[in-house]
# Entry
Amino acid sequence: MQRRRRKESRPEEILIAALEEFAENGYAAARLDNVARRARVAKGTIYLYFASKEKLFQAVVQQAVTPQLDEIEHLAQAHSGSVEDFLRGPFVMLQRQLLRSDLRRLLRVLLTEGLLFPELTEFYYKEVVSRGLAVIRTLIAQGVETGELRETSLVDLPQPLIAGALVALLWESLFGRLHPLDSDRLLETHLSVILDGLKTRPSSVTYH
# Structure
């Protein structure tokens, strides 16, 4: 029974070890030998579950972000209130969670090495970014339809709504040790500015 439990837990242990290896050394310099050592398995064991280093990285990304994306898609489909309530609630909460999660460490790898490995950025776009943008597009379209939001190009160009999280990530990576950033406050302020430009009525919420 103990050996069986150990075998069943191996994929999880390998993914944890891979995350540490990618986060510390980047993608190009990451070695499966090191992943095996961290996971306390033989290198060949990794190939029983993941065909290559690329597949292993993809699995690490999926483990880090898929649960949150599944949740936000479910919440968006079930939401019956205003778009503003959703954006100020679940949407901001998701961004906070992601900025504090392992995904933050993986994004740093993509930011520094994505141009060298376009297959990784393509995978991340399809599996993560496109799903998030689809949720935002649907919400904005609903807000315009109900008259809550003005009709703008944001339905086609929803990227400004995630710009606050990207700025927080870049700032922390480049300047965090010199000038610590209150990312929660940044996300709230950024969203307030966006909503004040979108809403058909002035916002009654003020952030300090």
